[in-house]
Design a protein that fits this description.
Blueprint (H helix, E strand, L loop, with lengths): L6 E6 L3 H17 L5 E7 L2 H11 L3 E5 L7 H10 L8 E6 L6 H6 L4 E4 L4 H13 L5 E2 L1 H17 L3 H8 L5 H8 L3 H15 L4 H11 L9
Parallel strand pairs: 1-2, 1-3, 3-4, 4-5, 5-6
Helix pairs in contact: 2-3, 7-9, 8-9
Length: about 220
């Protein structure tokens, strides 16, 4: 986009108060006239409406919640990318209230960045402006980047592989459930868990859960 163009934002979140707040923030920023004009050109409460309305409203930036009622925000981004909405045409930022959301998986969907809903309005606006003018770059605020590096460092030091890490992230589930989610056999799951136990020097799933929580791979609560 040209420097003189306004930044057109489409917001996807099933909470009306979030959509209202984001529109209020962008309106206030535009009125202040201190930087590029940001305009909310549309909003949706679910993924299906987002897929329908984005082509109609032609935004530059998609600000989308990770957990939508009908699908994941990352699924919406993947579908838009497959339909020709590449990063040059549409930048996408994923919002989430989940402290342990996988940043790697979010970025793998084609997203340009990640934001916690706990961030300030200034951070949201800075992220929008940055990816609007730098479509080939990724936005990660310092806190998220630090957490991501800490998790990867802790996992790397144990020698746990990517496949084993995927199993460890689901360790609260049964072997059958893990296998179904990762599309691998129960035997493969069992082997991965045995390797994880050996590398961590533990003997129980409870200890594996404790480790995963400690390094930030899974949340403290029992919810996945």
């Amino acid at each position: 986009m040209n420097d003189t163009d306004s930044i057109k934002v489409f917001v996807v979140d099933d909470h009306e108060v979030i959509r209202f707040a984001l529109e209020a923030w962008t309106t206030s920023a535009s009125i202040s006239g201190t930087s590029e004009v940001i305009t909310v050109v549309g909003s949706a409460a679910n993924g299906a409406d987002a897929l329908r309305l984005v082509p109609e409203t032609q935004p530059n930036v998609l600000l989308i919640d990770l957990q939508l009622p009908d699908m994941l925000g990352t699924d919406v981004i993947r579908q838009l990318r497959e339909n020709g909405w590449d990063a040059q045409k549409l930048r996408a930022i994923v919002m989430t209230g989940l402290e342990t959301a996988s940043v790697k998986e979010i970025l793998a969907s084609g997203a340009n960045g990640y934001l916690s809903k706990q961030e300030s309005s200034e951070t949201f606006l800075a992220a929008i402006r940055h990816i609007a003018t730098h479509p080939s770059e990724v936005w990660l605020n310092p806190t998220v980047a630090k957490q991501m590096l800490a998790i990867e460092k802790a996992i790397y030091e144990t020698g746990i592989t990517t496949a084993e890490k995927n199993v460890l992230r689901l360790i609260r589930l049964s072997n059958e459930e893990i296998g179904e989610l990762l599309t691998i056999s129960k035997g493969t799951v069992k082997n991965h868990i045995a390797n994880i136990f050996q590398k961590l020097g533990i003997t129980t799933r409870e200890e594996a859960v404790t480790f995963a929580i400690k390094v930030g791979l899974i949340p403290k609560s029992s919810r996945m």
